[in-house]
Amino acid sequence: MVGKQVFFKTIFSLLFFLLLSYNCYPQSDPPIDSDPNRNWDGITHWSRYIVISPGFMGPNALPVPEIKKGLVENNIEFELSQQNHFSKHDKTFNLFSRFYLPFANNKIAVELYMVPVEYFSMDTNLRYERKTFKLEGEGFAVGDLYFSTIIQLLKNHKSLPDIALRLACRTASGGKFTAARFTDTPGYFFDVSFGKKILKNLKQIENINIFGMAGFYSWQTYSVSHRQDDAFLFGFGADINTKSFSISNAVAGYLGYCQNLDRPIVYRFHINKNAKHFDFRIGYQAGLQDLLYNTINFSVIYHIKKPNSK
Fold first, then answer.
1. Structural class in CATH, domain 49-305
2. Strands, E assignment, the chain
């Protein structure tokens, strides 16, 4: 009889311990950390708290597109860059790769580019501001793949500038949405760019190229009120070209309509050293609005001139 009492007491104690353990240690992660700084309502999934806009994500999530300057280039190009992004609360280092292929007598080109790997380190203030899942603030991420088509509309006209149309798409292949590094949503943009060479054949300068672009940029969000953000895309600048060097200055950006730090504007400067098969570039980008990073990049561009190129 005593043995049965001991047995039932032991079973009861085990069941009580298991029930207590179940209540104290949930079997899966909650939708979001129950931190008072997040104002979590206890129900909404953590992904709804991350704001998908340039000012609330990493520097490679929604970058400002490069200006195409109205030309389909004559060369097949392979580019590899090392980029360093700095802000007050975030340091990011990444590789950048690009492939460019013209065809149809250099009237059309396709371009693919992406960030194959990114390392990031954010401080606590920025992790709270961006509402990263479990306050994730350091690690590695793989970026989105972009692919675009560039179509030459006008070239070598006596008085009008060169004009090109670009149609581009961003896939949702990037990682680390939990750390607000990439959006995990698709997007697209299209623009018309132009370029016109002036002041040709000066003593030390071959020409000065004035260029610009105007277009439309759109990306998907998780917002209930705005399923996607739409923006006016713009840019303008000038190149100084010599036989072996080119110096470029440009301002570019896009203006979203949600007004949640979705209006990034950047200034870009780079120097290009031209060679027979390799170009070497050093560049600098300053964030003027919303995308507040200072970026230094070093690029090597291998190019093959097509046999039918003039």
1. mainly beta
2. 75-86, 90-103, 108-114, 118-122, 138-141, 145-154, 162-170, 187-198, 207-220, 228-241, 245-256, 265-273, 278-289, 294-305
